[in-house]
Amino acid sequence: MRVALMVTCINEALYPRTGQAVVRLLRRLGVEVDFPQAQTCCGQPMVNTGYLDEAVPAVRTFVEAFAGYDAVVSPSGSCTGSARHQHSIVARRSGDADLEAAVADLAPKVYELSEFLVDVLGVTDVGAYYPHRVTYHPTCHSLRMLGVGDRPRRLLESVRGLTLVDLPGADQCCGFGGTFAVKNADTSIAMGADKARHIKETGAEMVVAGDNSCLTHIGGVLSRQRSGVRPVHLAEILASTEATVDEAAEVDAGADAEGAAR
């Protein structure tokens, strides 16, 4: 099976560790992963703001970059949803029959990470170890557009050392919504505050989700409230093992010692 990683713009620019975690995880499970260098934005920001014609070049680049792969895996329900559902709209509007055909062929092969693990590889126990108390936020696109259901929870429940606590109002939007957070800032902040309040009620150390865009918004609210709760992507938890947890602890201990010396 030829598998490609669609890392997404936000991970490429701000969260490279998430993409690296996906590669480590899949390779640990025996999957060889390629990273097509030609990939760019999936075009979702343009589509969501009504610029469908401007999204055509992005969709064309997408199908060219990922052509020939048996599966395309992404650590983002949002971008996966765009590829599976929005690309066909853009292609039809373009009037380019070849682009329509290419999108129709590729779209069913694009998977959000938890879908690929559970549905394609048939695993829920990926050999992960993460000794922390976490709560899971199902992002809107993964929940409503893709219908990933309980796949992420099943994966988290199989992680050794992890305590998974239910999040009140889990299915409520965090308020990010891409450009929504810019155009409707007051509403976005209020929704984020509600989500943060529910997260703090769980007593969790971390809030986990499958989209770093939502975690950026939630994490910003939690940080401003000095809550001590840290956002973490699902891929990073699933890629963790005893060895990586120990390495992280050593790094943290070294940083604490250096700070004390100062």
From TrEMBL:
GO MF term (any one): oxidoreductase activity
Recorded superkingdom: Bacteria
Pfam families associated with the record: CCG
Leader sequence segment: none
Residue ranges of domain Cysteine-rich in the record: 3-81, 134-218
Cellular component aspect of the GO annotation: cytosol
PANTHER family given in the database record: LACTATE UTILIZATION PROTEIN A, UNCHARACTERIZED PROTEIN YKGE
Protein name, as recorded: L-lactate dehydrogenase complex protein LldE
